[in-house]
Amino acid sequence: MEKAEAQGRNLREWARDVLLREAYGSTLAVGPDQIMTEIVALQLFLTNALSPVACGERMSAEQYQELMRNVKTNKHRAAREVVAQYAAENEEEKRHA
């Protein structure tokens, strides 16, 4: 249960993925958690890169490098927050169903 919580997932989802991975003998190099992390990283990058452009500003090479460092540093935390938000919304929907 701790591993599921650490990944921001409920026990049922986590157990299903473990069982499927074991059943198919697959050691995927990239799993759903990694894919979600990279999607969130892309969202962080685009949001922060396009905002100045939309305002008619230019980004210096130093600003771009800082943006890349920021995305790399924060993508895992941001992905966990997104997954936790979806899990909370799913639980809320279940309570009202």
Word description of this protein:
With 97 residues, the protein is mostly helical. The protein has helices spanning 2-6, 11-23, 32-54, 61-96. It has a domain at 30-96. The chain has 4 helices and no strands. The longest helix is centred in the last third of the chain and has 36 residues, at 61-96. It is elongated and about 50 Å long. The two termini are 25 Å apart.
Topology:
Elements: H1 2-6, H2 11-23, H3 32-54, H4 61-96
Measured as a percent range, the helix fraction is: over 70%
Uncertain stretches: none
- Secondary structure class reads mainly alpha
Count of separate DSSP helical elements: 4
Measured by DSSP, the beta-strand proportion falls in under 5%
| Mean pLDDT figure | 87
Largest sheet: none
| Termini gap | 25 Å
Which H/E pattern describes the elements? HHHH
Shape: elongated
E-strand count: 0
Question: Cα-atom Rg, whole angstroms?
Answer: 17 Å
From the structure above, extract its key features.
elongated, 4 helices, mainly alpha, single chain, 97 residues
Concise summary:
This protein is mainly alpha-helical and 97 residues long. The chain has helices spanning 2-6, 11-23, 32-54, 61-96.
